Amino acid sequence: MTPDSFAIFSIPRRTAIDSAQLQASYAALSRAAHPDHGGSEEAASSVNAAYETLRFPEKRLKHLIEVAAPEGAKAWRTVPLDESMMAVFMELGSALDASAKLLERKSKAASALAKALLTNEELVLRERLETIGFGLEERKTGMEAGFTQLDERLESGDDTVWKDIAATQARLAYLAKWQTQIRERLLAMM
Questions:
Q1: Same domain, yes or no: 97 and 173
Q2: 51, 83, 133, 148, 160 from 76: Cα distances, Å
Q3: What 3-state DSSP class applies to 166?
């Protein structure tokens, strides 16, 4: 069974958490769990793993489902992308494809002049990827703003909330994956 990261940090099982409070708790717990301060490698590892789980909303929601959802809600389900998420997926796919082709042409460019001729296209693609990345961050922030309502439903005992938490978690996981792809591509283009 997965250790309960919420219990390790002594915080309620919720979708929304205070990041500053989590950071402060992490500093105190990691200090106390560190082998140099009377803790153990195992305790320090547990605190670090719990922090990484709670720190990222897509991981936190997945963990919340694992430790608190009724068995029926834990089953994996395909979460279809709505039209706006599908549009972002298509735009990102196109930008990643174009940037991969540019990187390939750039690697084959034999002279400094040939590479310089690709600079404008590279700048346009970098800007396109950055714009998509900013849009993904805005979507993520918007989804996180809905955590309060999810938590209110959880606290009221509304068992239908688990389906919405699972759908939110899946969408956040897509966003996180796409953000990683953008970061990696932008690094490759440096």
A1: yes
A2: 24, 22, 27, 24, 15
A3: helix
Residue count of the chain: 190
Question: Minimal CA–CA distance to 161: which of 56, 64, 55?
Answer: 64
Q: 19 and 113 in one domain?
A: no
Domains held by the chain: number: 2
Sign of the dihedral defined by the CA atoms of residues 65, 70, 71, 72, in that order: negative
Q: What is the pTM of this model?
A: 0.89
Asked whether residue 107 falls in the same domain as residue 184, the answer is yes
Among the listed residues 98, 86, 152, the one whose alpha carbon sits nearest the alpha carbon of residue 125: 98
Residue 92 pLDDT greater than 90, yes or no: yes
Are 45 and 103 contained in the same domain? no
Residue pointed to by tokens 């959802």? 69
Residue whose tokens read 């998509």: 132
Domain residue limits at 95: 83-188
pLDDT of 122 over the 90 cut = yes
Q: Determine the distance from the C-alpha atom of residue 37 to the mean position of all C-alpha atoms in its chain, rounded to a whole number.
A: 32
Is it the case that residue 113 has pLDDT exceeding 70?
Answer: yes
The answer on 111 and 43 residing in a single domain is no
Residue 71 lies in a domain: no
pLDDT value of position 39? 82
The verdict on 105 and 162 lying in the same domain is yes
The Cα 154–Cα 168 span in angstroms is 14
pLDDT at 6 over 80: yes
Residue with tokens 């979708």: 15
